[in-house]
Amino acid sequence: MPLVSLFATIFFVLVGAGMDLSVINPLDPESRSALVVAGFLFVVAIVGKIAAGWSFIIDKPTNRLVVGLGMMPRGEVGLIFLGLGTSAGLLTPSLEAAILLMVIGTTFLAPVLLRVVLKDKPPSGGNSIPDEVAADPVGLV
Asked: Within a domain: residue 100?
């Protein structure tokens, strides 16, 4: 497991560092198409994950919006496809940057949206911290 964590981190850093972000300069008229594609991918990723959260069938009452928002930051698969497409030469630099922006955007937006959706909800009984752990989190007593 430590090796997987180490190599996964290296993979994600290498994929991100290998991108040419100059192709998404908003001041350059030639790069506006990449920003439009990035925006489209971003919206589709959000809508798709929320729709997937609403589409599963379960017999227990569940906040389906929270399920969909919780799936938003799962961009590892997008980064893997990005790495494969880049190494195979199938993606243009602007499409590579657009995919990277989508992954980064959904990763950072998900916690904000989850906080907004869950701000008025009390913690459930199964996820609350027991009183003895809260009183002595290190376990010295």
From this structure: yes
**Do the domain assignments include residue 95?**
yes
Alpha helices in the chain (DSSP H): 2-17, 32-55, 64-71, 76-88, 93-118, 131-135
Looking at the 3D structure of the chain, how many domains does it have? 1
Q: How far is CA 40 from the centre of its chain?
A: 16
**What distance in Å separates the CA atoms of residue 114 and residue 108, rounded to the nearest whole number?**
11
- Using alpha carbons, list the distances in angstroms from residue 120 to 47, 115, 123: 23, 9, 10
- At residue 141, the pLDDT reads 43
What pTM did the predictor assign? 0.70
Q: Are 68 and 50 in contact (CB under 8 A)?
A: yes
- Residue 51 to residue 68: CA distance in whole angstroms: 7
Alpha-carbon Rg for the chain in angstroms: 20
| pLDDT tens digits for range 60-74 | 888 888 888 888 887
Average pLDDT on 89-113 reads: 87
Q: Give the whole-angstrom CA distance, residue 49 versus residue 107.
A: 12
